[in-house]
Amino acid sequence: MTQPDIDAGAELDPVHPMKCPATARRAGGLTTAEVAERVARGEVNDVPVRSSRSTAEIVRGNVFTRFNAIIGVLWAIMLVVAPIQDSLFGFVIIANTGIGIIQEMRAKKTLDGLAVIGEAKPTVRRDGQAVEVSTSEIVLGDVIELGPGDKIVVDGEAVEAEGLEVDESLLTGEADPVLKKPGDKMMSGAFVVAGGGAFTATKVGREAYAAQLAEEASRFTLVHSELRSGISTILKYVTWMMIPTALGLVISQLVVKDNNFKDSIARTVGGIVPMIPEGLVLLTSVAFAIGVIRLGRKQCLVQELPAIEGLARVDVVCLDKTGTLTEGGMDVTELRPLNGSDEAYVRKVLGALGESDPRPNASLQAIIDAYPDSEVWRCTESLPFSSARKYSGAAFSEGDGENSTWLLGAPDVLLETGDPALAEIDALNEQGLRVLLLARASRDLDDPAVASDAKATALVVLEQRLRPDAADTLRYFDEQNVKAKVISGDNAVSVGAVAGKLGLHGAADTVDARRLPTDQGEMADVLDSNSVFGRVTPQQKRDMVAALQSRGHTVAMTGDGVNDVLALKDADIGVSMGSGSEATRAVAQIVLLNNSFATLPSVVAEGRRVIGNITRVATLFLTKTVYSVLLAVLVVCFQVEYPFLPRHLTLLSTFTIGIPAFFLALAPNKERAKPHFVRRVMRYAIPSGVIAAVATFVMYMIARAYYTGPGDLDAETSVTTLTLFLVSMWVLAIIARPYTWWRIALVVAMGVAFLLVLAVPWLQNFFALKLVGAVMPWTAVGIAVLASALLELVWRRVTLRYPD
C-alpha cells in the first residue's frame, strides 16, 4: 500500500489490490559469480547514458564546419600568394575554434559530473540481498525491484506484480496505465505509477531498442532551439548570397581589371572572407557552454542545452505545490478521532498502515514517525495508491481473530458531500494544513465501490514545511512578468492558504479543478484569470498545459511526483526536483539537484543572458556580412579594384566585432527573451550594413578621384578603412547600450587600439595603413559622422515601429 500523495488525481480508477510485501513471494536474484559470468560474456547494460556530446563529436562539431572549410581554402591560398599579414584571419579562426572546443569540453565535464550525481540507481537482487547498482551495471537475468515512480531501465518480463500499474505513454502514446501480471513484458522507458513488483532483465545494452530511444531523447544537444535554428537559417541565406557575389568579385578582380595576379588574388580573398559570419556559431556555442557551467555550480543539471533558452522565453510557470513550494518533509500536528473512535486504537491502525508500506512517501513517513507500529498485526492485502483514486488501503488480521479493512486518503473524496466533518476539514485547510481521512471499509479492497460505505474514523492533520526561498522566487517571477500558476492535487482551500502565505497574487480565489470545463478554450479562459488550482488530476495537469499553450503561452512545468510526468513531458520546459521520482527526472529538461526552487530564477536569468547577448552580437556579425556583400557588388558593378586587403578587414573585424562580441556575449543581461530572432536581428543588420557599405564606397570613389600617381591605391585603401572603421564603431556603440562603465571602456579601448595602429610606424607598415594628407582623412571623418547620424535615425525608427 502506498500512502496518498494528495498532489494527484480525482476520478475513480480500477481497483487492483495486492498481497502485502511481508506475505508476497520474492523471486530470487543472481549470485556474484553469475553476474561475473554475464559481464565476461558482454551481457551487460553497456549503453552509455551521456548528458553531453563525446569529445570526438565536440572537436568534429567545432572544426569541420562549412565556413571553416571555406576559410581554410582561402587561408591556404593567401599563405602562398601574399604576406603573412594577409593570412591573419586564418590564425584568428584557429584561436576561435580552440576556444569553442575548450569551453564545450568544460561544459561536458560539468554536465557529466552532475549526471552521475543525479543518476537514479535501480534496486536489484543479488546473493539474496536487495542492492542498488548503476544502470550500466545491470546484467542479463538480473531481477530488478520496482515501486511507484521507478523508471523501467531495461526490457524484461514481470516475475512479481502486486497491483503493479505501469505508464507506457512515453513509448506508446497511450495515457492509461497498464496493469501488469507475472509473465507480462516490461518496456524500458515506461515507469511505475502504482503498486510494486519485480522483473527479470531479458534485453540489456543496445539490444533494448526502447532504451536506445530513451538514451537519444536524453542526450545533450545543441539543436532544436529558435536561437540555433535561426542562426542556421541566416547562415543558409548568407551562403546563397555569398556564392554569386564571390564569383563576380573573382571575375572582376582577375579578368576585368587585369591587375597584378597576386594582388588581385589578395583583394579577392579580402572581399570574400568578411562575408562569412564565422564567429557567430562559435560565440553561440560558447555562450551556451558557459551557461551550463554557471548553472552547474548551482547544482542545476541541464539535460537538453536549449532548455536554458526555453526557460528564458517562458511566460507561464506551473508549480506543483508539494516538493516545489513546500519541502518534502511533513509533521503530524494533530489526530482527531471521529464518531466516538478510540484514539489508542486509531494509533495502532496508523502504525500498521505505516508498517505495510515498504516505500512510504512524505505523508506516510510523518505518520510512521508519529505512530510507530507496536502491534503484531498481519497485513493480508493492500490497495496501492492511484493518482486517480486519491486513497490507498490495507486489510489486516489483528491477531485476536478480528479482521479489518482501512482506507487512508483525501477526505473530500472519501466522504459524502454534506458530511459534517467536511466543515471541520475546511477550517483546517484554510490554515494551509493537509488533512488525511482514516476510514474503516465494510467492503473488500477489490470492490470498485470499496470507499462508498467507509466509516470515517479519524482525521490526521499534517503541517507542510514551506520552502524558505519560495516567496522570494514567486516575487521574482512576478517582477519579470512571468505568471505563476499553482496546480496541485491537494485540497483547493489548503493550496490557496499555502499560496497566500507565500504572497502569490490571486491565492484567495482558488479554483477546484473538479469544476473546470473540459473544453480547451473555456479552460484557457479560467486559467488566464486565476492562479491557484486544487484537486487537479494528472490528466487535467496535462490538459491545462495544452490549454495555456493554445493561447500562445510558453509554459514551464515543475514537479517531483510520478503524477506530474505527463504534464512535464508536454510542457515547453519540464523542471524536476533532484529528489523527485526517477520518471520525472527522465522526462524533465532541467533537474534541480539541490531540490531548491530558488534555482529557477538563475536558470531564467542565464537563458535571458544567452538570448539577449547572442542577439546583440548576431547584429554585429551580420552587419559585417551585409556591408561586405554590398561592397563586393558595388565593386563589380563599377569595375574598380576591391579597396581592402585581408589584413585590413581582419583588423576591422577584430576591433569592431571579434573582441567586443566576446565580452558582450558573456555579459549580464536581464532583458526578457523575445520571439522571432531572425526577424529582429535582420531588421537592424540590413539597414546598418547598407549604410556602412554606401558610406565606405562613396569615400572610396572620392579618394580615387583625389589621389593620383604611385601609391594612390594604398592611400585610397587607408581612408576607406578609416571610414568603415568609424561607421562600424558607431554600430558597436549602439549595440553596447545601455552603457555601463565596462561597456564604455570596451568601446573606447577598441577606438584607442585602432588609433595606435595609425600612429605607430611599424604597425602602419604591417597593416599597410597610412593616411596621406589632411583633406581625405577629414573627409572620411565627415562621411562617417553623417553615416552615424543616419544610423541613429534608422535604429530609432525601427525600434519605434517594432517595439517588440
Automatic annotation (TrEMBL):
This is Magnesium-transporting ATPase. Keywords: Membrane, Translocase, Transmembrane, Transmembrane helix. It is a multi-pass membrane protein. It comes from Streptomyces xanthochromogenes. It is found in: Cell membrane. It comes from the Bacteria. Residues 122-216 form the P-type ATPase A domain. The chain crosses the membrane at residues 63-82, 88-105, 237-256, 276-295, 617-642, 648-667, 688-707, 719-737, 744-763, 775-795. InterPro entries: ATPase_P-typ_cyto_dom_N, ATPase_P-typ_P_site, ATPase_P-typ_TM_dom_sf, ATPase_P-typ_transduc_dom_A_sf, ATPase_P-type_domA, HAD-like_sf, HAD_sf, P_typ_ATPase. NCBIfam families: ATPase_P-type (TIGR01494). The keyword Nucleotide-binding does not apply.
